[in-house]
Amino acid sequence: MTLLERFPGVTFYAADKVEIQEDVEIGPGSRVGTFVVILKGSRIGRDCTIGSFVHIAGAQIGDRVSIQTNVHVTRHTTVESDVFLGPGVVTTNDKQMDGQELKGPFIGAHSRIGAGAILLPVRIGTHVVVGAGAVVNKPVANGVVVAGVPARLLHSQGSHA
Predict the structure, then answer these.
(1) What is d(CA 20, CA 94) in angstroms, rounded to the nearest whole number?
(2) What is the DSSP string of 4-18?
(3) Which has more pLDDT, 34 or 2?
(4) Alpha helices in 37-138 (DSSP H)
(5) What pLDDT is attached to residue 138?
(6) Residue 161: inside a domain, yes or no?
(7) pLDDT 10s digits, 70-98
(8) In terms of residue numbers, what domain contains 151?
(9) DSSP 3-state assignment of 4?
(10) Per the structure, how many domains does the chain have?
(11) For the domain that residue 132 is a member of, what is the CATH number?
């Protein structure tokens, strides 16, 4: 079965240069660039854009998410709807200090993650802006702007529920 048959309503810009394992869901209206790898267990919502050279390893992606080129979304990461991941964003997962299972970052709805940001396995709230090149190693509250290494609060946009 071809990718076009497996994922009706999804646009592949170069289907012969995309690897999608079994047990993957991609919502209709989504667009997938070249040299994309999507591993088993990944769930990608409707109307998403996945740029070229993207690796998604068992992550949960909401609707209308834009993932730019050269992004790595690690296993156990959750990206809620209407999120922008800039070019070169990297998420990480690791065993937590308390011995829990592997976890990846949680990125709340309507957040924008700047180019080259590195996201450790922490919770990033809704309506958050993460500056380009930031290293996010602590939870980020809703409605704030963070930047730097490590990421620090720059501005509070107000409360978003």
Answers:
(1) 24
(2) HHHSTT-EESSGGGE
(3) 34
(4) none
(5) 95
(6) no
(7) 999 999 999 999 999 999 999 998 755 55
(8) 3-156
(9) helix
(10) 1
(11) 2.160.10.10
